Amino acid sequence: MAKLLALLAVLCLSQVIGAERIVNCYWGTWANYNSGNGKFDVSNIDAGLCTHLSYSFFGINDSGEIVSLDTWLDYDLGFISQAVGLKNQNSNLKVLAVVGGWNEGSTKYSAMARDWYKRQNFINSALNLLRNHGFDGLDLDWEYPNQRGGNWDDRANFVTLLREIKEAFAPYGYELGIAVGAGESLASGSYEIANIAQHVNFINVMTYDFAMASEGKTGFNAPQWAVENAINFWMSQGAPANKLVLGVGMYGRSFQLSDNSQNWPGAPCRGEGAAGPYSGSTGYLGYNEICQNNWHTVFDYDNAAPYAFSGDQWVSFDNVLSVQYKMDFALRNNLAGAMIWSLETDDFRGNCGETYPLLKTINRKLRW
């Protein structure tokens, strides 16, 4: 018996060691509309750098059914079929349909989750979407239960929804993931963490956006201490490490300084930084924009994160070194892997050196 137990222990250990870690690549399909070298479509995706490709986003209607948010991209241009076709380049790639996102809000999802009929509409439309187009699973990105127009019952209703989706997916082997708010204050108000963890294959923890210009001062988008605190909180509340996927932003949060001479973390700001040439949104710069700016850059070792500034513009972001710190933490804690938001904001064209420098750093740590 002792020999048998020892053999079983060795086999279990080898399975854990041999299990491939997740590298989940979110793709914002609207980057097809970006200008110049920011334009991104399926041809720019290196399928070998991802274990999962998360096709973002689908939405829902008032009946709870999943709908396309851009039928021209999804169907007329054939982005869905092209994305699923990447499995021909990487036979192990899983392509997921992502439903939700920040712009979808919370109200419709709150109404769907509390209504049995709307939940069934959601689940049946999910099954049709996955079957008809060859997706391997669903990623539900409800931002966020009990927030932004939701209510306290969302927390329990979310568990019910996930349980029902899991049961419906089981005969087909579809995967079910969720994207969740990271920090303790948000997560504790939105999720019954131990309960939702039972019903999903993995949990994408959005460990970024820890500082915004609305706070009136500069700050780090994803400082190491905040990332670690968030993941440790999720584990303390019953989320198993082997279901937690650590989020890495391939972008920075930007700020307009109130005084150009005060350019350190925590310095006063008067608002969001100027829009970049590709992403076109104030307060937000893709890494592919940041790396070409040639601003003065400082690596802050206390926060294990860089920041850069020029004139009244200031940005906090992740670079190769800070991503290495994050991956070392993921490895030490036996996390399921890492996810990125998002493919189109890494330096996918290699304008600053090698292509996909941040994503390749993740792969070198977790997979290669």
From TrEMBL:
<dbReference type="InterPro" id="IPR001223">
    <property type="entry name" value="Glyco_hydro18_cat"/>
</dbReference>
<feature type="domain" description="GH18">
    <location>
        <begin position="21"/>
        <end position="368"/>
    </location>
</feature>
<dbReference type="Pfam" id="PF00704">
    <property type="entry name" value="Glyco_hydro_18"/>
</dbReference>
<protein>
    <recommendedName>
        <fullName>GH18 domain-containing protein</fullName>
    </recommendedName>
</protein>
<dbReference type="InterPro" id="IPR050314">
    <property type="entry name" value="Glycosyl_Hydrlase_18"/>
</dbReference>
<feature type="signal peptide">
    <location>
        <begin position="1"/>
        <end position="19"/>
    </location>
</feature>
<dbReference type="InterPro" id="IPR029070">
    <property type="entry name" value="Chitinase_insertion_sf"/>
</dbReference>
<keyword id="KW-0732">Signal</keyword>
<comment type="similarity">
    <text>Belongs to the glycosyl hydrolase 18 family.</text>
</comment>
<dbReference type="InterPro" id="IPR017853">
    <property type="entry name" value="GH"/>
</dbReference>
<dbReference type="InterPro" id="IPR001579">
    <property type="entry name" value="Glyco_hydro_18_chit_AS"/>
</dbReference>
<keyword id="KW-0326">Glycosidase</keyword>
<dbReference type="InterPro" id="IPR011583">
    <property type="entry name" value="Chitinase_II/V-like_cat"/>
</dbReference>
<keyword id="KW-0378">Hydrolase</keyword>
